[in-house]
């Protein structure tokens, strides 16, 4: 989308939900203005807008992207739901687990300590 042509060559800017795209290697704009997203996660869902402009004019195009399936737990519990008939609760947290050797020490989906981990179960206290 947003393949551009023109003389002079238009400058192309992409935004997501009105904001500048995240500054990481997952977003690339090729030579004709097409946005390429790699390692897609649910947080990338939103409205993407392409703006192309040169000295003779400008144009915009937008598209809504909904990411299904792959979950990073940064925006919520994804497709996981809590079963209210058991003794455990799903939780979402940052950092290591409270008990030793029961889960990862950092968020493997985004590769950082600051990210949220996959849900972990904790028993109810009666």
Brief account:
The chain is mostly beta strands and 126 residues long. The N and C termini lie far apart (55 Å). The strands form three sheets. It has a four-stranded antiparallel sheet with strand order 2-1-5-6, with no helix packed on it. A two-stranded antiparallel sheet has the order 3-4.
What can you tell me about this protein's structure?
This protein is an all-beta fold and 126 residues long. It is 0% helix and 32% strand. A hairpin with a 2-residue loop joins strand 5 and strand 6 (57-65).
| Outline type | elongated
Q: Give the ordered list of helices and strands.
A: EEEEEEEE
Largest sheet report: 4 strands, antiparallel
Number of helices in the DSSP assignment: 0
Describe the secondary structure blueprint for this structure.
Blueprint lengths: L10 E6 L2 E2 L6 E3 L5 E3 L8 E9 L2 E9 L22 E4 L28 E4 L3
Antiparallel strand pairs: 1-2, 1-5, 3-4, 5-6, 7-8
Pick out its properties.
126 residues; mainly beta; four-stranded antiparallel sheet; two-stranded antiparallel ribbon; 0% helix; 32% strand
